[in-house]
Amino acid sequence: MRTIKYIFESLKLLFKSIMDLIRDNGMVYAAATSFYFLVSFFPVILIIVYVSVSTLGFFFKGVNISEISTSLFKYIKEVLPFLPESLVQELARIIKSSRSVGIAGVVALLLSSTAVAESLIQAARTIFNSQKTHYVLTKLLAIAFLIGIGILLAIFLAITSLVSNLLSSNLPIVYKFLSIYKGSILFTTILPIIVIYVSYTIISYLIIPVKVSINRIAKVGIFFTFFFMLAKIFYGFYLRNITKMTIFYGSISALVILVLWVFYITTLYLISLELIKNMPSKHHNHN
Fold this sequence. Notes:
There is one protein chain. The protein has one domain (about 15-75, about 80-280). It has 13 helices and no strands. The chain has helices at about 1-25, 25-40, 40-60, 65-80, 85-95, 100-110, 115-125, 135-170, 170-180, 185-205, 215-240, 245-250, 255-280. Helix 1 (about 1-25) packs across helix 13 (about 255-280), helix 3 packs across helix 8 and helix 4 (about 65-80) runs antiparallel to helix 5 (about 85-95). The longest helix has about 35 residues, at about 135-170.
């Protein structure tokens, strides 16, 4: 009986959060974020990878930019699994010549890539009924948001590289086993789940404009990660077996698929913010 009550309360909470999202114009924010992503796609990805490469290059001298970029794009493709390979190759080519960008180029990239982050920040402020901030402050928060994602990717890459080196040096049998079975559930499911869950928890903790416990965010992070991974499976199946997007959109079908994915993930993310707001707790303090 207690289990049934828990399921009922959870569904009730989810329904309320979806209704609140509609009331807070969440779908408009999701559509705006998707549009901004389409407009600023290249600068967003470039600045994130550039920051990651620069961070690793600062702490580890003599790093191979090509190898780092390849590893970073593997992480990015966990979030954007339908990113066309041709775009990945082009982005990687640009990153390899990143040293020619210069300070002015980096500043230009930052200013042109903040629209997506600004949209999410404003959506979070609307959901949590927070006061609007000055345009300049929002712009600075958006820049910090993008830089933070880049640093987070660098940390993930450094940790996985460190663990890999430790295993190869101290536990060669385990390392060999993992190397042989890189197509196993460990590398195709478990590691992506960890990356998405940790990223969600950290980003949400920083983007939410009111004081919310990390424990509450972590709980909702399970919901977000589950439906994120589920969507990857069903969306991929839908594209492979049910519809042929090229018939409708021709040469731009890959970009349309990517934008639709961003719209879904943004909507899911905003629903999760509504869940965080609506979750009952003994202590719910606002700044």
